[in-house]
Structures are given as structure tokens and as C-alpha cells.
Amino acid sequence: AKARPRARAPAPAMRVLGIETATWSASVGLSRDGRAVAQRSLATRGNHAVSLPELIGATLAEAGWRLADLE
User: Fold this and answer.
1) Helices (H), 1-71
2) Separation between Cα atoms, residue 17 and residue 19, nearest integer Å
3) Which of 19, 11, 16 is nearest to 34 (CA)?
4) Would you give the distance in Å from CA 19 to the centre of its chain?
5) What is the pLDDT of residue 44?
6) CA-to-CA distance for 28 and 26, rounded, in angstroms?
7) 26 Cβ neighbours under 8 A, 6+ residues apart
8) Backbone dihedral angles phi then psi of residue 45, each to the nearest 5 degrees
9) Regarding beta strands 15-20 and 25-32, do their DSSP bridges make them parallel or antiparallel, or are they unpaired?
10) What is the pLDDT of residues 16-68, one digit of tens each?
């Protein structure tokens, strides 16, 4: 009898954090395997570095993820 090829284990889900800061709004989005999971936007006064950590943290919390869960 011919040996059957082994079934591959499914690939782990890819979790991605997207950040957009090209305008006065800062936007953060999370996706898993190419599908949107959570997103938030915030109008800023130009200093995205101040608002991004809180915005990222809130978006991660909404999705139930930790920073360590990202690729």
C-alpha cells in the first residue's frame, strides 16, 4: 500500500497592526489573516507620538490581544 502524505498543520494566524498617520487623524487597525478585527481613529493636533500608544493599547484591548500577539 502506498503511504499517504501527511496532512500539514494549519499555519498559525497572522496578526497585524496597521498604523496610519499621514493626516491630522491617527488611525490604528488590527487584522487577523487579512480580515479586520478592530480599528480606531483619533483627530490629533499633529503630534501622533503622544496619542498613538493609548490608541494602540485601546485597540488591542478591544480585540482581546496583547502586543506580544502581533507578528
Assistant:
1) 48-63
2) 7
3) 16
4) 9
5) 85
6) 7
7) 19, 20, 41, 42, 44, 48, 51, 52, 55
8) -105, 25
9) antiparallel
10) 999 999 988 999 999 999 999 999 999 988 788 889 999 999 999 999 999 99
Burial class of residue 60, CB neighbours in 10 A (0-12, 13-18, 19+): buried
Q: Contact, 33 vs 14, CB < 8 A? A: yes
Q: Specify the pLDDT at position 47.
A: 85
- The grid coordinates of residue 43 equal 483627530
Q: What is the pLDDT of residue 12?
A: 75
The H-assigned helical ranges of 14-71 are 48-63
DSSP string, the chain: -PPPPPPPPPPPPPEEEEEE-SSSEEEEEEEETTEEEEEEEEE-SS-HHHHHHHHHHHHHHHHT--GGG--
